[in-house]
Design a protein that fits this description.
disordered N terminus, single chain, transmembrane, 220 residues, 20% strand, 2 domains, Glutaredoxin, metal ion binding, Protein SCO1/2, membrane, alpha+beta, 9 strands
């Protein structure tokens, strides 16, 4: 009995010491540890966002794009080879777009007109992110509202989705309350060189002079 009692007491003392040590550890280390983890997390986030906002390097750009088999707005086959031998402007959108697409195509037509002969070797494409509704006929009529210089490109939904993915374009169908749908999508114009490689972007709503200078740099 005494031994068991002593063992219990010994156990109680050990338990008490453990609790005291735990409390000391919590007081001495928990706040610094939490601050350290927090600061490391903040630094990690800053590093990530800094990296993500940096313009892509040539090596990274060379991995954007890929083979595709689509059709233009006159029903003719279009492959990645169509982007070779001349610089191109590529915009991904859809004909049922209420605002961003018509605004961008209007601006593209304006750039081509302003550049005049400078843009003779430049081609402009309007790739559909909504091939279910954007037939070649629909695309041809739609692009004709802006200029005959912009070539509409559509095709099989699977092939179209592949092109969208390969060019790192965001495109998502958004159902409407009335049963219809719209498309959320990347709103930038892609600047593609004569090798068919991405060399930059023109952001939606970018200043006209800035956009024109980017195109002139692409044409050099």
């Amino acid at each position: 009995m005494p031994t068991q009692l002593n063992e219990r007491r010994g156990g109680s003392r050990a338990s008490l010491r453990a609790k005291e040590e735990k409390a000391m550890f919590t007081k001495e280390w928990s706040v610094p540890a939490i601050l350290t983890v927090f600061l490391l997390s903040v630094c990690g986030l800053i590093a990530y966002f800094t990296w993500s906002l940096m313009p892509p390097t040539k090596a990274a750009e060379d991995h954007i794009g890929g083979a595709f088999n689509l059709i233009d707005d006159r029903g003719q086959p279009v492959t990645a080879q169509a982007l070779k031998g001349h610089p191109s402007l590529i915009y991904f959108g859809y004909t049922h777009c209420p605002d961003v697409c018509p605004t961008t195509l209007f601006e593209m037509a304006g750039w081509l007109k302003t550049l005049g002969p400078e843009a003779d070797k430049l081609k402009a494409y309007f790739f559909s992110v909504d091939p279910q509704r954007d037939t070649p006929e629909v695309m041809h009529k739609y692009t004709g509202n802006f200029t005959d210089r912009i070539i509409g490109v559509t095709g099989d939904p699977t092939e179209m989705q592949k092109a969208i993915k390969d060019w790192r374009i965001y495109a998502k169908k958004v159902p409407s309350p009335d049963g219809d749908y719209t498309m959320d999508h990347t709103a930038s114009v892609l600047l593609v060189d004569a090798d068919g490689s991405l060399r930059g972007l023109i952001a939606y709503g970018e200043d006209k002079d800035v956009a024109l200078q980017k195109i002139r740099n692409l044409l050099k």
